[in-house]
Amino acid sequence: DIQMTQSPSSLSAAVGDRVTITCQASQDINNHLNWYQQKPGKAPNLLIYDVSSLEPGVPSRFSGRGSGTHFSLIIRSVQPEDVATYYCQQDDDLPNTFGQGTKVEIK
Amino acid sequence: QVQLLESGPGLVKPSETLSLTCTVSGDSITNYYWSWIRQSPGKGLEWIGYIYHLGNTNSNPSLKSRVTISIDTSKNQFALRLTSVTAADSAVYYCAKSAYHGKETFDVWGQGTLVNVSS
Description:
- The structure holds two protein chains of two kinds.
- Chain A is mainly β.
- Chain A contains no helices and eleven strands.
- Chain B is mostly beta strands.
- Helix content of chain B is about 0%, strand content about 55%.
- In chain B, strands 2, 4, 5, 6, 9, 10 and 11 form a seven-stranded mixed beta sheet that branches.
- The radius of gyration of chain B is 13 Å and the shape is globular.
- The model of chain B has no long low-confidence stretch (mean pLDDT about 95).
- Chains A and B meet through strand 5 and strand 10 of A and strand 5 and strand 10 of B.
């Protein structure tokens, strides 16, 4: 299985800060990389697919970048409603696999 | 707008079979791939398997020998059976819809149902 490693595992940021979450794959995943947001007690919600394509309805302060094995999720100006755990997922190879998550809190 | 709702027992005894159903509303089940995904504190998010109405199925090799996913187009439902469960199968189980651009990209999720395996 392809291993997805996220860092950091948690972070605390002030409202308006730029937040970057990284995700590293154990092998090249041909840009088949998705990001999900999970708020407490809720199901995950798709934010970004194929590295950088924003899902309809997702605020433009979210963006994704990367290639090969290194990827990033960027929140340009973090807001209180962005408190959540964020997961990367590769769907290049079966089985698709998720990172362990990055918990984002507001200072 | 597609909505998904999981249903099934919240408690299953060790060695028995876990059975869950996902009811799809808002669109025809024949239009997409459908998956089961589970989440536990120990293993995080784990994809279990998917199905398409024409019979295409695939599942995680780590669970393949114990998993059956089926579909009932007349009821707009699909189902999961997981046999010989142990405490390690305790998790929140989600059903999810695949996006049009990727059968393992999940753009709609159910609310999840907690299943505990315990005697």
